[in-house]
Amino acid sequence: MSATTSTKPIDPLDYLEIDTLLSDEERLIRDTVRAWVQDTIVPNVGDWFEEGTLPMSLAAELGRLGLFGMHLDGYGCAGASSVAYGLACLELEAGDSGIRSFVSVQGSLAMFAIWKWGSEEQKQQWLPAMATGERLGCFGLTEPDAGSDPGAMRTHARRDGSDWVLNGAKMWITNGSVADVAVVWAQTDDGVRGFLVERGTKGFTTPDIKKKLSLRASITSELVLADVRLPADALLPEVKGLRGPLSCLNEARYGIVWGAVGAGRACYEAALDYAKTRIAFGKPIAATQLQQQKLAEMATEVNRGLLVALQIGRLKDAGLVRPEHVSMGKFGNARGALEVARMARTVLGANGITLEYPVIRHMNNLESVYTYEGTHDVHALVIGGAVTGHQAFR
């Protein structure tokens, strides 16, 4: 038996040569999104974060790239693989978590809900225009007193003749105040149901949430419903119960499994570049044992997270993925990315707290990623239930 060892130097940005596991098409999609992020997002996102804004002109650009609902089939959507969609999420979040959230909420929450559970008329009305970015959507599930336990939601819809009348409030809604349509989940006498609430409907308001220190380059709103009257055809007809919103959340969480790796990678790359050029005591700090330990930890975590994301993506494309798989990916990758960001901040020293570098922005954003689409604690219980057979939160 003989073995050969490559003499090619190790690429610090692809340590385990994960590129070799991707198809030509997957690499092309990834590289296209990466180039757009580098040209459009990276030079500007620090200012957007500082100002607490996100330019809506990005919607048309993202639509032209085919990123809205890219993993859905038909209705103007690209029908890309789950892995291709994941790679796009990774590159978007390497720019900023807010940009990936913008795409994820549009495609994996609002569009997916209509695509999976809507009527053909609803699909035709909304999906083609949402795929191009001409129309935007949001997803209303979380409430002030019902986050991890969506079954405790207080938003209620009652019948009034052939109409529905909705009352309640939703919280922490990405894209809320700019959305043309909100997918709102409410308790009814027939269980939890989904409704399409159009912007401008009487009694429907979307005040923005201010003073955020995380996801500042992202629009976050409340949805307030005060005797909002909707016609019968506003109801999503194909699902009852929490299966509807939870199926959408699983789609969005899948994007986070990849996206968190992108944020971690951006922090690792910034720390590596900085360590190579920062001179202390007559040599680059990259030559010191302490900083090499940090860089080794970061490189390992980024590669680990990417391999986990890729395996879950392959399972998803094969029709074998389970929500518990996605929970493990989100649990590990969000935590790992946050640890990478915190470590990278220490490598950059005082420069690590300025928006001239991406690290503190990613670190702040990842505090939200750690919590949303299922908190870290809840995903731990999902994994724990899967491995023990005992559901601790039920």
Task: Characterise this structure.
- β1 and β2 form a beta hairpin.
- With 394 residues, the protein is of the alpha+beta class.
- The N and C termini lie far apart (54 Å).
- It folds into 3 domains: 18-131, Butyryl-Coa Dehydrogenase, subunit A, domain 1; 137-239, Butyryl-CoA Dehydrogenase, subunit A, domain 2, CATH 2.40.110.10; 244-388, Butyryl-CoA Dehydrogenase, subunit A, domain 3 (Up-down Bundle), CATH 1.20.140.
- The chain has 11 helices and 11 strands.
Beta-strand content estimate: 5-15%
User: How much helical structure, as a percent, in the residues?
Assistant: 40-55%
Under CATH, the topology of the largest domain is which? Butyryl-CoA Dehydrogenase, subunit A, domain 3
Rg, rounded, reads: 22 Å
> Topology as H/E string?
HHHEEHHHEEEEEEEHEEHHHH
User: What's the β-strand tally?
Assistant: 11
**Domains counted in the coordinates: how many?**
3
**Class by alpha and beta content:** alpha+beta
Given as residue ranges, the uncertain stretches (5+ residues, pLDDT < 50) are: none
